[in-house]
Design brief:
By secondary structure, the protein is of the alpha+beta class. The chain is 50% helix and 9% strand. The protein folds into two domains: 2-38 and 57-316, 2-methylcitrate dehydratase PrpD (Orthogonal Bundle), CATH 1.10.4100.10; 324-445, 2-Layer Sandwich (60s Ribosomal Protein L30, Chain: A), CATH 3.30.1330. A hairpin with a 6-residue loop joins β2 and β3 (128-129). The radius of gyration is 23 Å and the shape is globular.
Length: 507
């Protein structure tokens, strides 16, 4: 992890055709109250514009900003806070392991030449940067290994885009753990709600889009801005929205992960822009998500269940280090392999039928580590040969493993239109394994394990965390991190807590 600086302004191949095929179808502060700067004539202008603003700016977006500002830590139900602690732990583990990817380590070295101080990079030697750079690096690392959690019913990896910015800010500002956890939950709330009413354009990947605005809201909340400031931070951030493509993933273009990291960067920057007095148009979010970056924005459902249905509890976690849509088929394959117990070379073929979005991820020859995360034939072969799909199993060596390469060619993937018809409410799959001796096993499922309908046990997620965090932390550091997340409500100073964790980082 990259450490955040203590500066005074810290707050302030598979063919693209296949992708087109699928894409076409606060510690004790109940209400943050830092006022915005009042330049000459600015307050009068705002007063005169208030009625016009209420008409032009979406009522729903403003109400969401008010909810983020006014909801205290104690207003959030205990069950929600408890689940959010697992999200926090899981996300930190993925960031730590992702920091070991060669392109991420190289970027650490490049940016270190002009590094500021104040926030931690969650990586070996625990380097320091200014909060924005730390957030960027931690966000890129978290996207690098395809193991982060996400929204179950809509596309969005909310925690990995919201947490890096507020993590850096909480350290640089010496915020309490309560402040950090509340900002995570409320930023996640914005992400889930914006993603649910936002229609992405064909081929668009969710990194750096609606969840980037949620990162801005979370950063503004952590910095104590009021509802007007949170709204303005989000609206200013619409000018920073990105346009990553799903073509990146099948081409193995790791540049896609920079888009996810930029959400963290904006999360640490947006409050500074707001406090500096930058302005934004009143309907910036509606225009950006409805017409510019996105193809539609229906705010009529934005507030449904607000305050009672918490988005962070409607997520999924991953134990398989590959793209989430192919997990149902892999669950089915695991069951079939458990029944037959075959040696890899005894498998004649593996036939997988699933819904459309997952079925296009069928390239049997992914060009690199990143692209392999989006190949069902590759993941299936790894599972059959290595018996697991965790980060260690789905590593670089799997691409050139002769047994895996041979089996990839015997994996057949097809779309079942009936399954496509019920997605994404369900994510069905059916897998048949046929052996060379004629034996066969077929298993089907309606969705994968790990979402809120069929959750992993907490111990499974802790085991995942230990395996990932152990790449960067020693055993004492792993135990400290688990305790830190479990007791985050009682941490008085995140700067001190993260500094203590850094003492256990490998060098």
């Amino acid at each position: 992890m990259v450490r955040a600086g203590r500066t005074a302004s810290a707050c302030m191949p598979m063919r693209a055709l296949q992708v087109r095929e699928v894409m076409s179808t606060a510690h004790n502060f109940p209400s943050p109250s830092i006022p915005l700067p009042k330049g000459e004539g600015r307050q009068a202008d705002r007063s005169e514009r208030s009625q016009e603003r209420g008409q032009k700016m979406g009522r729903e977006v403003e109400e969401l900003a008010r909810f983020v500002a006014a909801t205290s830590h104690d207003d959030i139900p205990e069950r929600v806070r408890s689940h959010a602690k697992l999200v926090l732990l899981d996300t930190l583990g993925v960031i730590l392991a992702g920091s070991e990817r060669p392109e991420v380590r190289s970027l650490h070295e490049q940016l270190a030449r002009g590094a500021g101080m104040g926030a931690s990079v969650w990586a070996r030697a625990w380097p320091h940067h200014d909060p924005r750079s730390a957030a960027l690096l931690n966000g890129i690392a978290g996207r690098a290994i395809e193991l982060c959690e996400g929204l179950r019913l809509v596309s969005g990896q909310a925690a990995m885009q919201v947490l890096p910015g507020i993590l850096a800010l909480s350290e640089s500002r010496a915020s309490s753990g309560r402040t950090l956890l509340s900002a995570l939950i409320l930023g996640y709330e914005v992400a889930g709600r914006l993603c649910s009413v936002f229609t992405p354009r064909p081929l668009a990947h969710q990194n750096g889009q609606a969840s980037l605005l949620a990162a801005a809201a979370a950063g503004a909340r952590l910095c104590g801005l009021d509802a007007t400031g949170i709204s303005r931070a989000m609206r200013i951030s619409t000018t920073l929205l990105l346009t990553p493509s799903y073509t990146n993933v099948v081409a193995g273009a790791t540049a896609l992960n920079v888009a996810g990291g930029m959400s963290g960067f904006v999360g640490a920057l947006a409050s500074e822009l707001t406090l500096a007095g930058f302005e934004a148009q009143d309907d910036a979010i509606e225009e950006a998500l409805g017409q510019m970056v996105g193809a539609g924005f229906d705010a009529s459902r934005l507030l449904d269940g607000l305050g009672s249905q918490w988005q962070i509890t409607r997520n999924y976690f991953r134990l398989y280090a590959c793209c989430n849509p192919i997990h149902p088929a892999l669950d089915c394959l695991r069951a079939a392999l458990a029944e037959l117990q075959p040696a890899p070379d005894a498998i004649e073929r593996i036939e997988a039928a699933t819904y459309r979005f997952a079925a296009v991820m069928r390239n049997p020859q992914p060009p690199n580590f990143f692209a392999s995360k989006y190949s069902l034939p590759h993941a299936a072969a790894v599972l059959a040969v290595r018996g697991d799909l965790d980060h260690a199993a789905m590593d670089d060596s799997a691409l050139n493993d002769p047994a895996i390469a041979a089996l990839r060619a015997r994996v057949q993937v097809s779309e079942d239109p009936a399954m496509s018809a019920v997605a994404p409410r369900l994510r069905p799959a059916r897998v048949t394994v046929t052996l060379k001796d004629g034996r066969q096993a077929t298993h089907a499922c309606e969705s994968h394990r790990g979402d809120f309908n069929d959750p992993f046990q907490p111990e499974e997620l802790h085991a995942k965390f230990r395996g990932l965090a152990g790449l960067v932390l020693n055993d004492e550091g792993i135990a400290y991190a688990e305790s830190l997340c479990a007791d985050i409500d009682h941490v008085p100073d995140m700067r001190d807590a993260i500094a203590e964790l850094g003492r256990h980082a490998r060098r």
